[in-house]
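Design job #97: recover the sequence.
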């Protein structure tokens, strides 16, 4: 009786369902990651109607976990009595009484990975370490790393990123760092802990609450911090609190060609133990991607605003490759706005098949870009609409990358602000090693 009831229920459901519906979902290969965790990243389930956008969105959700080198979702028609592989692009929710089977192939990257990072702009640094990127066989990550050169130190980082099926997120870090800030001619020491946790109320939008402690001291005890309150103490101990909003609507986590990325961070630092001082810091980063024939336009706007009991060491240096045409010392100040417009154009794509991580490709691109920056000691003194307040320039570059590591390449920039004499001596070389500028 039960068997007959199930058969009859299935027949009735197939008559009522609107659109092509999923009869089964199978994972074709064995992974370290739990099968249920992978299936939870799908935007559909068994007996749900689907179309091509469901397949593309589900593939992107699995790729965003950054656990897999290759993800493939195959669809098979099964109404005719035998399996017929079809292109996901022909799936339509308007089709009635059709059923499909979905097959997922996810080639997992190595669970234990070395960590390697470079900073090719001042302050220079190399990061060496190791990470375990699939803790508990889900998307958790723990990393221990050491830094060298201008930035010396050690940190332990545990990350719990949000995914499609899990709305909460967290980042927990303890660190000790010596930062040789050659541009300011000072050496800072930082000891502290950083905690952030949050919840995603809306798809692609993450909210994190920040709590931390940072003890800042200096190599030279005679160095004057020079607060407005005339405090001469050689160190500060800050309690940090704040909030960060991240909206990620990029269409690809490795090489986006459309969509946008926005991040807004508000941080309040207060020294309760020494002189009553405080600092407010607001940063906003907006990047938009547009398809342009076979290439991609990327357009960025980046703000950093500070207020409070500011001192010399609060001078903010630009992030790596924030302006690729002028010297970092020329765009160092308390407050800053930077913009960039870049054309990324693919010129060659070479696919490779690897036994562990699956199918990846080496992608070669040329870039054309323009960067501009304006700074101010007080955020009220910005002159956004006066051309003379901007330092700007343009340039070109060549880079290559794959789905499992960020680009390697070079971009050469030139700023015409100081004239066109001795152009070769005024070129700025930006060496990219396993990183994007935005």
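Job complete. Output follows.
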């Amino acid at each position: 009786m039960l068997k007959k009831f199930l058969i009859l229920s299935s027949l009735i459901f197939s008559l009522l369902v609107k659109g092509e519906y999923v009869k089964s979902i199978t994972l074709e290969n064995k992974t370290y990651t739990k099968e249920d965790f992978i299936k939870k990243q799908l935007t559909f389930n068994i007996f749900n109607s689907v179309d091509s956008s469901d397949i593309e969105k589900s593939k992107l959700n699995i790729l965003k976990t950054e656990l897999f080198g290759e993800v493939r979702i195959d669809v098979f028609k099964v109404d005719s009595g035998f399996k017929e592989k079809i292109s996901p692009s022909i799936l339509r929710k308007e089709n009635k009484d059709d059923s499909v089977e979905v097959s997922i192939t996810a080639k997992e990257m190595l669970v234990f990975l070395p960590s390697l990072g470079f900073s090719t702009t001042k302050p220079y640094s190399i990061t060496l370490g190791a990470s375990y990127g699939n803790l508990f066989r889900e998307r958790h990550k723990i990393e221990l790393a050491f830094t060298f050169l201008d930035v010396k130190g050690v940190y332990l980082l545990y990350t719990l990123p949000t995914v499609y099926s899990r709305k909460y997120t967290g980042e927990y870090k303890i660190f000790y760092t010596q930062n040789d800030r050659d541009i300011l001619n000072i050496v800072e020491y930082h000891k502290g802990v950083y905690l952030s946790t949050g919840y995603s109320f809306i798809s692609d939008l993450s909210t994190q609450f920040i709590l931390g402690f940072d003890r800042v001291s200096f190599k030279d005890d005679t160095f004057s911090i020079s607060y407005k309150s005339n405090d001469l103490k050689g160190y500060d101990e800050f309690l940090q609190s704040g909030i960060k909003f991240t909206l990620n609507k990029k269409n690809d986590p490795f090489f986006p060609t459309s969509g946008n990325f926005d991040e807004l961070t508000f941080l309040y630092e207060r020294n309760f133990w020494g002189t009553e001082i405080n600092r407010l810091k607001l940063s906003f980063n907006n990047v938009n991607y547009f398809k342009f024939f076979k290439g991609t336009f990327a357009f960025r706007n980046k703000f950093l605003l500070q207020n409070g009991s500011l001192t010399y060491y609060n001078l903010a240096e630009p992030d790596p490759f924030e302006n690729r045409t002028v010297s970092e010392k020329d765009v160092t100040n308390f407050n800053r706005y930077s913009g960039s417009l870049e054309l990324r154009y693919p010129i060659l794509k070479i696919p490779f098949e690897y036994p562990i991580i699956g199918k990846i490709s080496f992608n070669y691109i040329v870039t054309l870009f323009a960067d501009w920056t304006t700074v101010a000691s007080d955020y009220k003194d910005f002159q956004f609409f006066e051309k003379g307040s901007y330092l700007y320039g343009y340039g070109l570059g060549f880079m290559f990358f794959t789905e499992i590591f960020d680009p390697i390449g070079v971009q050469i920039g030139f700023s015409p602000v100081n004239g066109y004499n001795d152009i070769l001596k005024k070129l700025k070389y930006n060496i990219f090693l396993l990183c994007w500028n935005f």
